[in-house]
Amino acid sequence: MGKWHPLSNLWVFILSLGMAACAHAQIFTSQGHLSDFQSLSSDLQTHRVIILGENHGFKVDQNQHLEVLKALRDHGRPIHVGLEFFSYPYQADVDAYRLGTLAELDFLKKIKWGKPSFDYYKAQAVFPDYSRGERTWALNAPNELTSQIAKVGIEGLSPELHDLLPPDFSVGRDSYRDRFLKIIGGHFTDPKLAQNYFEAQSTWDDTMAWRIETFQRENPDAVLVVIVGEFHVQYGGGLPDRLKARGVQDVLVISQVNTDGMSQEEIQKEIQPDPEYGPRADWIWAAPAVE
Questions:
Q1: Which residues, 6+ apart, have CB-to-CB distance to 76 below 8 Å?
Q2: Is the peptide bond before 116 cis (omega within 30 degrees of 0)?
Q3: CA pair distance 204, 62, nearest whole angstrom
Q4: Rounded to whole angstroms, how far apart are CA atoms 122 and 126?
Q5: Using CA atoms, how far apart are residues 153 and 195, in angstroms rounded to an integer?
Q6: Residue 22's pLDDT is what?
Q7: 137: enclosing H helix or E strand
Q8: Residues paired with residue 38 on neighbouring β-strands, in sequence order
Q9: 49: Cβ–Cβ under 8 A, 6 or more apart, which residues?
Q10: What is the pLDDT of residues 231-269, one digit of tens each?
Q11: Domains of the chain, first to last
Q12: Which pTM does this prediction carry?
């Protein structure tokens, strides 16, 4: 998030993928079978990391986030929230904002918040109760790091920027790279530049995975709800793959699908397991996105 950088156009393009829907929300299992929120809620209680892959800036997705958080709260679990929109060097500022020692406007200016409106994410960001030891987590890589990777790749980073990479950094798996390059292929004639963008995408994923691993190690009895862009979670690539590589356990992935303009037949096709990549997520929450 924050001010514009070279990944911004690509970010907007990826977020628009799969836009689609019917007149009401539907919840499906990983195999594309129609289910309900009660079943999803029961599954939530057995996991320590809940990943919500969303379409940024839509009210329906925000409402679903809050339903998940409330269901966890109703069961008395300590709840932390991790946001893709906050870069990890700003963790102290996130804590200061949550503790009331940094005003909201000053906080947003300090972290260089851009779009979408913070109103879409404020309720999620302030959900953890700091008086109970809960916390709001800044998960993502700094913009200056991913912007430079998009230009010159990992190998071209200065020592100072290289130090901002997570420990034991690795790019995403081959199937994730294939999907990513298929999507952006028409936008680049230079394969090296396309690879740079994939390395930047992977930096987002692996940095968030590193931060989530840190959370799980430091909070063995709590649950972390992670709000992140939809492409980062699809088909086990991106963030779920990096979490697995870093030993993070008890992860549940929910894919939030925007079905605006889709027929029921198109929705069914969208939520079915892919013949090459497998299930889209553990659960799929499909609804028309409304700003």
A1: none
A2: yes
A3: 21
A4: 6
A5: 8
A6: 36
A7: strand 136-140
A8: none
A9: 212, 215, 216, 223, 224, 226, 243, 248, 250, 251, 252
A10: 999 999 999 999 999 999 999 999 999 999 999 899 999
A11: 8-143+207-287 (3.40.50.11550)
A12: 0.89
